[in-house]
């Protein structure tokens, strides 16, 4: 093994430029399935509470009476189990990583889903049933 | 006879990033005795098994260690599957093997970098981590996470790798292997590395066996133990042979890991070639009732998950024996006779992962 074993590497590295990226000026590399953070669409959430029951780290809580959905970002481990378990597709996993924070804040969302009213039965059917 | 002094080493040390504390008894510069102590980062993850449902605990098991994360999840899942009698589909087994070997690649490249840094070979450290980055990118593209994959679950896997991505991985393996061989060549043949490592802290085959060494530490001393030989996941189909060295010194431990990188690349290649089509998971019904010792070969050695279920959705007990815990007694045997300046290199040569050890 010669003394100049690493010379090839040195020259290649000089030609290729830095291997790292200038984060945060350049955003972190993410792929199409990167687990970044969970978001909710309050317009479609039906307050079933499956997400909060599935969450392994108790990051999600839901108040069915007050129609409030809360997520504690510091507890959330972005495993994606809530997204998989949501029967209405209200939760999505976004790819971007959230920036670091210094304060512990629980994010609150007010659920705006309104149960559609049942279409009124036709009088003819009522008559037939009676 | 020179006077004996005790020098504390760790838990904070510039070379060693792991919080292990060693009391080194020195005569002049030579180590004559070592008293290890751990307990700086205990997190109580075993207790959590009684508070999380057995399907949810996979995520906790995965977070025991940031490097062999996938294999902890795999070991736990295999244990539960054995207790409940679940047969995992073949495609899931192959995917688990591919991700396990990717984890082993990035763990070994990380370790080679840290080891080069411990020797004072900064350039080599950066080259190793540069290669590791491409493995992490592949893991992120296929699982969604760089170090915490989150794809293993009880009953199978949560994600598939499309044929397009598999082909892309297969094509990328050849140039990657070439770069790894360039890198491994320096670790195995460079004079600087050889002077520093050969003959340093030898542990004999008998000692390694008697003290219960596992993984590369045992294989470097000529003990041919590798749990992958038992054929869990898809290793049975892939025809696996463990890498064994006989010298038992730091150089041999380095050589085992370098050659395991080549073996892992080969395993991934064959797994991609042979991967069958089929389902990814089976539905898990019922609750675990029974106990099982689940064992998996991690980059650092064999991990043991003891799981006991009592018929409820919470397990009654989980006990996790990680490879570093098994490798600390051999470390204590290795260190006497080494110079103080060599201690970080010798400690690194067992690839300590203390956050694993203390769970």
Description:
The complex is a heterodimer of chains A (130) and B (359). Chain A has 130 residues and is of the alpha+beta class. Chain A has a domain at 33-114: Alpha-Beta Plaits (2-Layer Sandwich), CATH 3.30.70. Helix content of chain A is 21%, strand content 17%. In chain A, the strands form 2 sheets. A 3-stranded antiparallel sheet of chain A has the order 2-3-5. Chain A starts with 6 loop residues before the first helix and ends with a helix. In chain B, the strands form 3 sheets. A 3-stranded antiparallel sheet of chain B has the order 1-2-3. A 3-stranded antiparallel sheet of chain B has the order 6-7-8. Chain B has a single domain (41-313), classed as Orthogonal Bundle (Cytochrome-c3 Hydrogenase, chain B), CATH 1.10.645. With 359 residues, chain B is α+β, with helices and mostly antiparallel strands. Chain B is 48% helix and 14% strand. In chain B, a hairpin with a 4-residue loop joins strand 7 and strand 8 (315-321). The model of chain B has no long low-confidence stretch (mean pLDDT 87). Chain B has 13 helices and 8 strands. Chain B has helices spanning 57-62, 69-84, 90-119, 122-143, 163-189, 191-197, 205-210, 215-220, 235-238, 250-274, 323-334, 343-349, 354-358; strands at residues 4-9, 21-27, 30-37, 152-153, 156-157, 289-298, 301-310, 315-321. The A-B interface holds A 1, 5-6, 9-10, 19, 29-35, 54, 56-57, 77-81, 84, 93 and B 52, 56-57, 59-60, 63, 123, 126-127, 130, 133, 137, 140-145, 148, 150, 158-159, 182, 185-186, 189-191.
Enter the CATH topology name of the domain at 33-114 in chain A.
Alpha-Beta Plaits
- Total strands of chain B: 8
Q: Strand pairing plus helix content of chain B: what structural class?
A: alpha+beta
Across the major sheet of chain A, the strand order is: 2-3-5
The level 1 CATH classification of the domain at 33-114 in chain A is Alpha Beta
Strand content of chain B is 5-15%
């Amino acid at each position: 093994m010669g003394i100049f074993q690493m010379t090839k590497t040195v020259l290649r590295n000089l030609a290729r430029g830095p291997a790292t990226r200038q984060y945060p000026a350049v955003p972190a590399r993410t792929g199409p399935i990167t687990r970044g953070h969970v978001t909710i669409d309050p317009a479609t959430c039906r307050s079933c509470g499956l997400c909060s029951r599935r969450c392994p780290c108790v990051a999600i809580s839901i108040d069915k009476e007050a129609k409030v959905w809360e997520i504690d970002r510091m507890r959330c481990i972005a495993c994606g189990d809530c997204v998989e378990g949501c029967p209405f597709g209200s939760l999505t996993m976004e790819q971007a990583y959230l920036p670091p924070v210094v304060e512990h804040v629980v994010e609150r969302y007010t659920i705006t889903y309104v149960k559609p009213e049942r279409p009124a039965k036709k009088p003819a059917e009522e008559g037939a049933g009676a | 006879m020179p006077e004996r002094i005790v020098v504390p080493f760790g838990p904070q040390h510039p070379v060693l990033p792991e919080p292990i504390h060693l009391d080194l008894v020195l005569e002049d510069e030579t180590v004559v005795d070592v008293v290890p102590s751990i307990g700086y980062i205990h997190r109580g993850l075993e207790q959590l098994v009684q508070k999380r449902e057995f399907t949810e605990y996979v995520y906790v098991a995965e977070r025991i260690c940031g490097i062999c994360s996938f294999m902890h999840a795999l070991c736990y899942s295999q244990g539960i599957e054995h207790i409940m009698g679940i047969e995992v589909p073949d495609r899931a087994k192959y995917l688990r093997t591919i991700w396990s070997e990717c984890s082993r690649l990035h763990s070994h490249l990380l370790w080679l970098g840290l080891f080069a840094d411990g020797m004072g070979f900064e350039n080599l450290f950066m080259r190793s981590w540069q290669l590791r980055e491409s493995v992490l990118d592949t893991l992120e593209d296929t699982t969604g996470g760089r170090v915490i994959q989150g794809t293993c679950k009880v009953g199978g896997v949560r994600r598939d790798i499309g044929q397009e991505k598999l082909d892309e991985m297969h094509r990328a393996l050849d140039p990657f292997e070439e770069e790894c061989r360039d890198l491994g060549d320096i670790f195995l043949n460079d004079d600087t590395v050889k002077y520093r490592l050969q003959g340093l802290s030898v542990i004999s085959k008998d000692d390694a066996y008697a003290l219960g060494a596992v993984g590369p530490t045992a294989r470097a001393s000529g003990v041919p133990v590798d749990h992958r030989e038992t054929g869990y996941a898809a290793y049975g189909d892939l025809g696996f042979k463990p890498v064994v060295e006989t010298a038992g010194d730091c150089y041999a431990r380095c050589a085992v890991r370098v050659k395991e990188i080549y073996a892992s690349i080969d395993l991934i290649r064959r797994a991609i070639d042979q991967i069958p089509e089929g389902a990814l998971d089976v539905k898990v019904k019922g609750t675990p009732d029974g106990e099982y010792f689940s064992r998996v070969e991690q980059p650092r050695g064999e991990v043991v998950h003891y799981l006991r279920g009592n018929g409820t959705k919470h397990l009654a007990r989980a006990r996790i024996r990680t490879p570093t815990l098994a490798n600390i007694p051999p470390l204590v045997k290795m260190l006497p006779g080494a110079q103080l300046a060599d201690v970080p290199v010798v400690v690194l040569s067992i690839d300590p992962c203390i956050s694993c050890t203390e769970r």
